[in-house]
Amino acid sequence: MDIFLQQVINGLVQGAIYAMVALGYTMVYGIMGLINFAHGEVVMIGTLVTITVVTFLLKAGFPVWLAGGMGIVAAASVCMVLGWSLERVAYRPLRGAPRLTPLITAIGMSIVLQNLAMMIWGRNYMTFPSLIEKTQFEIGGAAFTNVQVLIVLVAGLSMGGLLLLVYRTKLGMAMRATAQNPGVAGLMGVNANRVISSAFVIGSVLGALAGVMVGVYYEIAHYQMGFMLGLKAFTAAVLGGIGNLAGAMAGGILLGLIEALGAGYIGDLTGGFLGSHYQDIFAFVVLIFVLMFRPSGLFGEKTGDRA
Amino acid sequence: MVAEPLLIVEGLRVAYGGIQAVRGITFHINPGEMVALIGANGAGKTSTLKALSRMLDPVGGSIRYQGQEIVKLPPHRLVREGIALVPEGRGVFPRLTIAENLAMGAFTRDDKADIAADLEHVYGLFPRLKEREKQLAGTLSGGEQQMLAIGRALMSRPKLLLLDEPSMGLAPIMVQKIFEVIRMVAAEGMTILLIEQNARLALESSQRGYVMESGEITLTDEASSLLHNPKVREAYLGE
Ligand SMILES: Nc1ncnc2c1ncn2[C@@H]1O[C@H](COP(=O)(O)OP(=O)(O)OP(=O)(O)O)[C@@H](O)[C@H]1O
Ligand SMILES: [Mg+2]
Asked: Which positions, given as ranges, span the membrane (chain A) (predicted)?
C-alpha cells in the first residue's frame, strides 16, 4: 500500500474539515479583530446535537436519509442561535474594551460551553449513528471511502457558497467593507451589528456542518472534542493569514496534509521513537513556526487591513 | 423670502477626555448653499464633522437637520436621511474595487435604474474612475481616491454633502480638478459644507464662510467679504 498517497487522501479529508472550522475563526477575526475561542465548542455542540436528533429519529422509525437530514438542519439551527447569542451576550458588551478582555471572555465561553455540553450529554464518549453505508474504493494502492468523498464534496460546495456570498452579494460587500473600515462602512448605512451577527451566524453554520462531518468520519464524539479541533482550525487560520477567507481554506487543507504526512512518516523519521499518535504535535510546530517567521500567514497582509 | 436652514448647529461641544476640541459652536447651512468652514490645524474642524456625521458623540449642543434633532441618531441612519460625508483622508475601502466602493455609496438604496443613472453621472464627473472600474481602490493615487470618495458620497443621492479637506495632500493641479467638480456639484443645487485649510480656494468656491480657532467660531460672513477681511487675509491667506 502506498503510504504517501494514502496520507494525502486522509490529509485532504481532515484538511477540508479544518478549513470549514477555520473559516469561522477567520470571518469573525476579519470583521472585528476577535479570536472567538469558543468556536470549537460550537462545532462540538453541532456534532452532539446531530447525534441526539438522529438517534432519536432513527429509534422513532424515520428513514435514515430523513433522520440524517433533520439532524443536519437541527445542528445548523442550534449552532446559528448559539453563535448569534455568543456575540450578543458575551462579546457585544465588550466592544471598545481593551483587546485582551474579549479574548479572555472567549476562553471563558469555551469553558462554559464545554461544561454545559458535559451536563447535557455526559462525560462518556458517544457513538455517532451510522448514516451512510461505507464502501471502499482503491486508487494507486491507496484506499478511500465514499464518506471521505462526501466530506470533501460538501466542504467544497460550502466554501464555494461562502465565496459567492462574500464576493457576489450586497451582504458580502458590506461585510468586506466593514472589515476594511468599520467607521466609513457605517457612514454608508451599514449597520455594523448586523454584519457582525451575520459573520457569527455564517461561521456557525459552517461549524455545524464540520461538526456533522467529524461525527460521520470518526463515528465518535465527546464534549471535549471541540477544544483540540478548534485549536487546530485556529492554527490553520493563522497559517493561511487570519482574516483571509482563501487563506483559511488553504491553511486548513495544508495543515491536514502536514499532519497526515507527518503522522505517516514520524516513525521512520524518529527511528521508531515517536509513533503516529504524536500527530498532534505537527499542528503546534506549524503554529510556532508561522508565528515566529511569518505571523501574517501565507496570504495575510502585513498591515491591519483585513478580510 | 429666506428658506428654513437645512442644518442648524447650536452650542456644539466635542471633547476627547479632558481636551475640549469644539467649544460650543453655532452655525447653519441654507438649502443649496456651499458654506466653508476654515481654520488652522487642530482648530476642531474634523471634530465638528465627526459630530455631525455621528461618528462621535458630542458632549453638548444640538444638531437639527430638516427641522429634526439628529444628535442621537446612529451613524448608519444618517445616510438614509440624506447626509453624506467625504471623510478626512478619503476613507475608501482599499480592497474593494472602484465599482464596489461606488456601490457601497448606494448601499441603502434599491432603486436599481436610478442607481445606474447616478453611476453614469459620477463616471461623467470623474472619467478616470470609469477607466479603472475593476481596479482595487487601494491602488489608486491620492487624487483618484479623493475622486472616488466624493463619487461614493454622491451615490447616496445626498441632500447635504460634508467634505473634510478634499485638497489635503494633493498636487495643485489635482486640487483644481477636484474643486472644479465640487463647484459643478454645487451648481447642480447640492448643499455643501466644505472644510478646508486651503482657505482661499474654499472661500472662492463658497457663498458664506465660518472661521474656526481653537474650537470656537470667531468670524462669519459672506465668503467674498471674508476674502477681503484683513484678519483673514493675514492669518489664512498668507498676506
Ligand atoms: N481622537 C482624539 N483624541 C484626542 N484628541 C483629539 C482626537 N482627535 C482630535 N483631537 C484633538 O482635538 C483638536 C481638534 O482636532 P481636529 O482634528 O478636529 O482639528 P482639525 O481642525 O480638523 O485639524 P486639521 O486641519 O489638522 O485636520 C486637536 O487639538 C486634536 O489634537
Ligand atoms: Mg481635520
From this structure: 12-35, 42-58, 64-82, 103-122, 142-167, 195-218, 281-300
Q: A46-56 pLDDT, tens per residue? A: 999 999 999 99
* Closest chain A residue to the Cα of B108, Cα to Cα: A189
> What is the per-residue pLDDT across A180-236, written as a single tens digit (0 to 9) for each?
999 999 999 999 999 999 999 999 999 999 999 999 999 999 999 999 999 999 999
Q: Across the 239 residues of chain B, what is the mean pLDDT of every consecutive 10-residue run?
A: 85 94 97 96 95 94 96 94 96 97 97 96 96 96 96 98 95 95 96 95 96 95 94 83
Closest chain A residue by Cα to residue B79? A189
Compute φ and ψ for B109, nearest 5 degrees.
Answer: -100, 155
What is this structure's pTM? 0.92
With 0-12 CB in 10 A as exposed, 13-18 as middle and 19+ as buried, what is A203?
buried
Residue B156 Cβ inside 6 Å of ligand 1? The answer reads no
Our mutation pick for probing the ligand 1 site, out of B45, B50, B197, B218, counting the most ligand atoms within 8 A of Cβ, is B45
Q: What are phi and psi of B8, to 5 degrees?
A: -125, 120
> What's the pLDDT at A303?
41
Atom of ligand 1 nearest to the CA of B16: 4
- A3-293 placed in CATH 1.25.40: no
Task: Please indicate whether residue B197, judged by its CB atom, sits closer than 6 Å to ligand 1.
Answer: yes
A233 with A25: CB under 8 angstroms?
A: yes
Residue nearest to atom 3 of ligand 1 (CA): B16
Q: Which residues of B lie inside 8 Å of A (Cβ-Cβ)?
A: 53, 55, 74-80, 84-85, 87, 91, 93-96, 100, 103-105, 107-108, 138, 152, 156
Distance CA A201, CA B151 (A): 33
- Looking at domain B31-55+73-236, its CATH superfamily turns out to be P-loop containing nucleotide triphosphate hydrolases (3.40.50.300)
Domain map of chain A by residue range? 3-293
Distance between CA atoms of A232 and A212, rounded to whole angstroms?
Answer: 17
Contact A187 B80 (CB under 8 A): no
Interface touch A170/B107, C-beta < 8 Å? yes
Query: What is the value of ipTM here, to two decimals?
Result: 0.93
